[in-house]
Design goal:
Layout: E1 5-12, E2 16-21, E3 25-31, E4 34-37, E5 43-46, H1 48-51, E6 61-64, E7 67-68, E8 71-72, H2 75-93, E9 97-105, H3 111-123, E10 126-133, H4 134-141, E11 152-157, E12 162-168, E13 171-178, H5 182-197, E14 199-200, H6 203-213, E15 224-231, E16 237-243, H7 244-267, H8 271-280, E17 282-285, H9 294-302, E18 306-308, H10 315-325, H11 327-330
Parallel strand pairs: 1-9, 9-10, 11-17, 17-18
Antiparallel strand pairs: 1-2, 2-3, 4-5, 4-6, 7-8, 11-12, 12-13, 14-15, 15-16
GO molecular function: ATP binding
Organism: Candidatus Harrisonbacteria bacterium CG10_big_fil_rev_8_21_14_0_10_40_38
Subcellular location: Cytoplasm
Length: 345
């Protein structure tokens, strides 16, 4: 392994990539988006710069998310995102290479999918990657007492997946991964606007609506928002007003799916651990946890206190950082760590 190497933690999410650099903390937090020229294959932009291009490019320039539901769908572009940010970090920090990486992955990934993540990370320039289930990383990042003989429940509502787990004695007792999360809510809103108002809008506009006036429960103060798009009948630009009640109706089915998945995990938990959760509550994180009132909805439907973790967008990345800085202590949590590679002289 080259000298002057650094270790990292990576939250390789469907919506965002976060990188934790040992002894420094989170140093990268950008959209998991790339833009490239389909004619030349040239990479044009990564992260925030690529996101600005969504819906605004000619046909020969594609703007894509190389991860879908937490799974690598475009291996080469996933590798390019990582390589881009790792090179950027190395230049800023004046170090030569990356030794080890802890990468958070959805708990339901197959062995082939996990291997694909490891290969992408190695191809981006990391000597030895390890993967850890995202719920465990999130619980560590949230400073939940995972080593104790007491249950903690974590719900990570990300972009592509919702990860639900009950953790005790440094292990996952029961878990569930659901392909309904923040991106699905955005898509629900996009479809609603098209069907209800016959207005074509892009993903960025639907995301803006969700953040500005979206909610899981009725609000004390009514919210509304002016949005612009293309009239699907006339083909001309058009502006309409959308209200919080309409957005809530659009995402209600997906929210029910998330609540029911949490209920299923609770129902199969051992009685003693279910009692712990009743006393200690449910911890939620991820971008979806920022939806207004989602904690109150879960609490009301399941009769269990529900709390949004402090700094919920970064808990998985922070967890991978804690693990990489205390690798010996957490080594048993890692899924199929790669053995040191044979070096041929």
């Amino acid at each position: 392994m080259p000298f002057f190497s650094r270790n990292i933690g990576v939250d390789l999410g469907t919506s965002n990539i976060l990188i934790y650099l040992d002894k420094r903390g989170i140093v990268i937090n950008e959209p998991s988006i790339v833009a490239f020229n389909t004619k030349t294959g040239k990479l044009l932009a990564v992260g925030e710069e690529a996101k600005k291009m969504l819906g605004r490019t000619p046909a020969h320039i594609q703007v894509i998310r190389p991860l879908v539901n937490g799974v690598i769908s475009d291996f080469e572009m996933s590798q390019e995102i990582l390589r881009h940010f790792l090179r950027k970090l190395a230049k800023q920090g004046s170090f030569m290479s990356y030794g080890k990486a802890i990468v958070g992955v959805p708990s339901n990934l197959t062995e082939v999918e996990r291997k694909s993540v490891e290969d992408a990370v190695m191809g981006a320039g990391v000597f030895q990657p390890y993967v850890i289930d995202e719920p465990l990383a999130a619980a560590i990042g949230a400073r939940l007492p995972i080593d104790e003989a007491i249950a903690s429940m974590i719900v990570d509502i990300g972009g592509g997946t919702t990860e639900i787990a009950i953790i005790s004695m440094a292990g996952t007792v029961t878990s569930k991964s659901l392909k309904v999360a923040g991106d699905k809510l955005t898509d629900d809103i996009l479809r609603f606007v098209r069907e209800e108002f016959k207005l074509a809008v892009g993903e960025a506009t639907a995301e803006e609506i969700k953040l500005a006036i979206g909610s899981a429960i009725p609000l004390d103060q009514k919210l509304e928002m002016n949005i612009r798009g293309r009239d699907m009948v006339s083909g001309l630009p058009k502006e309409i007003v959308i209200r919080d009640t309409q957005v809530r109706a659009a995402i209600a089915k997906s929210l029910r799916s998330i609540v029911e998945a949490i209920r299923e995990v609770l129902e199969i938990a051992p009685p003693e651990l279910a009692g712990d959760i009743l006393k200690r509550g449910i911890n939620i994180c991820g971008g979806g946890s920022l939806l207004r009132g989602i904690d109150q909805l879960i609490s009301k439907e399941l009769s269990v206190a529900t709390m949004v973790i402090e700094d919920p967008l970064t808990c998985v990345a922070r967890g991978t950082g804690v693990v990489i800085e205390n690798l010996t202590h957490y080594e048993n949590l890692l899924d199929n760590p790669l053995r040191p590679k044979e070096i041929k002289l």
